[in-house]
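Re-run requested by the PI after the first attempt was lost when the workstation crashed. Everything re-entered from the original request form. Ligand of interest: zinc ion.
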Amino acid sequence: MKMKKQSSKERPLVEQTKHAAGQYGGFSFGGVQPDGVQIVNPLEPGTLFPNGAKAAVLLTFDVEGNYGNGTGSVQQEISNYELICSRLRQNGIPATFNIVAKMVEDHGVKFVEQMLASGSEIAPHGYVHDLNKYYGGDKVYAGHYGVPENQMQINQGLQVFCERFPDEVSGYRLPYGHFNEFSYNAIESGNLKWASHVGIDDFINPSNGYGTQPFQIRMGNKLYNLVEIPLDTQTFDWPIWIACPKANKLFVDAVGAYCESRNIAFVRTPAGGALIWKRRILEAVSNDRVFTLLCHPINLTLENESWGNPVEQFLFPTIDLLGELQRSKKLWVCTCQQMADFYRSINNL
Ligand SMILES: [Zn+2]
């Protein structure tokens, strides 16, 4: 299926209201910072990880087909998982797949079984991706809703996986990384270990970044019993080769600003993206840091005359590089659950 880049009619990803309900939270994307998030006990740079490396990289995927704003082919996405998981297995590295629960209800469990067979972790990415599809109206994000809607999004998301894969789920990533305190209350009450919503850095408003290192999250007076794993909300796949530079200018500008600061070319193709990710990974190694990558596999199904197969041009070079660095013990490539367990053990949580 030939698809062009989206037109300027694309809906801006970050909309005006941070959190229409609650006192805290919002987005960590597009120059915006959520309200009231405090960092407690961030993991020290240079920490020695279980395999002897002093740096760690987490490869995370938001598995969402067309349940969000993705425009690729959900069938192609699902059939790609066999190849993606076999590449992970060949390299001996795991990933974390955050999956829209409704997608499992609608499309079956085979692709999820492939992920687990690769040694990877699964976690919910919402029950539905966009809450307006459930409640109607314009409100899309969890942080726009109150207690019952957040409980529904978390509990129904968990239920789909717990019924099919008992004891596999230990964390949660909400759609768009958009949350409020009601979201975190619901995640904590689900007896989970980790959440992953806030951005590592912000190349538009540098003071908005939360740093690369996992921490324990506090909002207002409440310290949550959850390990927050910050993620790359700047140079993730979508702004590199898909997002419209007009409708989602801040996102595309952020990637441009990263490339400019590192003196590398910003080429808006999957192959160009692989070079940006390579730089991110090598920086984690040389700075003894944790870094959490984010890819949306629906975007790997987009064909365009300017590029070849994004699975081969973007994802495979990344997986191969991570495998090589893991084998040479320069890196610990781990899942969110492994990172959360490690963090909890050294902080006695
Ligand atoms: Zn998503």
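Saved to the shared folder this time. Residues 37-346 form a domain with the TIM Barrel fold (CATH 3.20.20.370).
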